[in-house]
């Protein structure tokens, strides 16, 4: 199986230039599905900390790079929305957050904020023993004993996966668009319009410069701290 990906065909969320070279690195299987960006792309093309995959492998062999609190040794490991990328030796911590246009960008945060991460609930089910299991947008499964609903967002601790905050999906909630023409925009939900049948519900969002409408699959509920404006 090839380890390369044509730049022109990468997802729009990838923070790479499409016309400078023909190929880039292909992400391994893992979290975030096809939208996951290979870690080496962030290290090389975004941060400029390495010049090659060989240098990336060396840095990873030193356990100097943590993703969601865990040392990573695979330079092709997919990185996606709301992941925490930490360089403890540099005292640098970043949250992956959608930029304008929906491309993934790194928002610098402090060490305390890097101890947990946000997840959108995409599924909820009962599992053996009567527990409730939530599945998050990146594939993470969390066992809970409180009431949460799909489309809500939760913040989970990177160490023990406990829920440390809960943001319901409802009118008045602060959201960011992560896909579509309005990707990266942040605003409050004005309206949630239910579409009969199997069609997607639409969401009206008010922003500082007006507002927009999109389908609810394209928005994620966040807290104001997750915009990066109040993390310093």
TrEMBL record:
Q: Alphabetically list the UniProt keywords.
A: Ribonucleoprotein, Ribosomal protein, RNA-binding, rRNA-binding
| Gene Ontology CC | cytosolic small ribosomal subunit
PROSITE patterns given in the database record: RIBOSOMAL_S4E, S4
Q: Pfam families from the entry? A: Ribosomal_S4e, RS4NT
Q: Where is the Small ribosomal subunit protein eS4 N-terminal domain?
A: 2-33
On whether RNA-binding is a keyword of this UniProt record, the answer is yes
Residue ranges constituting the Small ribosomal subunit protein eS4 central region domain according to the UniProt record: 91-162
Enumerate the GO terms in the molecular function aspect: rRNA binding; structural constituent of ribosome
Q: Where is the signal peptide?
A: none
- Any one Gene Ontology biological process term? translation
Which InterPro entries does this one have? Rib_uL2_dom2, Ribosomal_eS4, Ribosomal_eS4_central_region, Ribosomal_eS4_central_sf, Ribosomal_eS4_KOW, Ribosomal_eS4_N, Ribosomal_eS4_N_CS, S4_RNA-bd_sf
Coiled coil: which residue ranges? none
| Family statement drawn from the similarity comment of this UniProt entry | Belongs to the eukaryotic ribosomal protein eS4 family.
Query: Which PANTHER family does the record associate with it?
Result: 30S/40S RIBOSOMAL PROTEIN S4 (PTHR11581), SMALL RIBOSOMAL SUBUNIT PROTEIN ES4 (PTHR11581:SF0)
Q: What is this protein called?
A: Small ribosomal subunit protein eS4
Gene this protein is translated from: rps4e
